[in-house]
Amino acid sequence: MILERHGLDLAKADTIRGALKKGDFGTAFGSVTPDMIEAFSIAGTPDMCNQKITRLLKSGITQFVVGSPIGPNVRKSIDLISEQVIPHFKQ
Questions:
Q1: 67-78, pLDDT tens digit by residue?
Q2: pLDDT in tens, 1-17
Q3: Are 12 and 31 in contact (CB under 8 A)?
Q4: Does the CA dihedral 72-73-79-82 come out positive or negative?
Q5: Cα 79 to the chain's mean position, in Å?
Q6: CA-to-CA distance for 68 and 25, rounded, in angstroms?
Q7: What is the mean pLDDT of the chain?
Q8: Enclosing domain of residue 13
Q9: Are both 32 and 57 inside the same structural domain?
Q10: Could you give phi then psi for residue 6, rounded to 5 degrees?
C-alpha cells in the first residue's frame, strides 16, 4: 500500500526485495530509484530537512527515526541535526 501511495515502481521494489533475500546488495542498491529515496528519506541541508519535516508533520506524520547514513562526516551531521533541525520543531 505505501509503495502505491507514493506511486513507486512495484516491479523495482520486487527486484530489491528479491536481491536482499539473496544477499545481493549490489543489485538491491542499484535498483533504488530517486523517487524511492525521496519517499523514504529526509536529506539535504538543514533548511531542506526542516521543509520536508514540516510537510510530513502537516500530512499527519507524528514520529521520525534518525539513522545512518547521515552524511560523510557523522559528527558534523549530528551537530547540524541537533543545532539546526531539532530546535526548529521544539514547542
A1: 777 888 999 999
A2: 788 888 898 999 999 99
A3: yes
A4: positive
A5: 19
A6: 16
A7: 90
A8: 1-40
A9: no
A10: -95, 0
DSSP 73: S
Q: Are 20 and 51 members of one domain?
A: no
What pLDDT sits at residue 45? 93
- Structural domains counted in the chain: 2
Q: What are the helix (H) ranges across 1-88? A: 2-5, 10-22, 25-31, 34-40, 46-58, 74-80
Instruction: Specify whether 77 is located in the same domain as 53.
Output: yes
Q: Which of 29, 43, 55 is closest to 80 using CA atoms?
A: 43
Contact 49, 42 (CB under 8 A): yes
pLDDT of residue 68: 75
pLDDT for position 30? 95
DSSP state of 67: -
- The one-letter amino acid code at 41 reads S
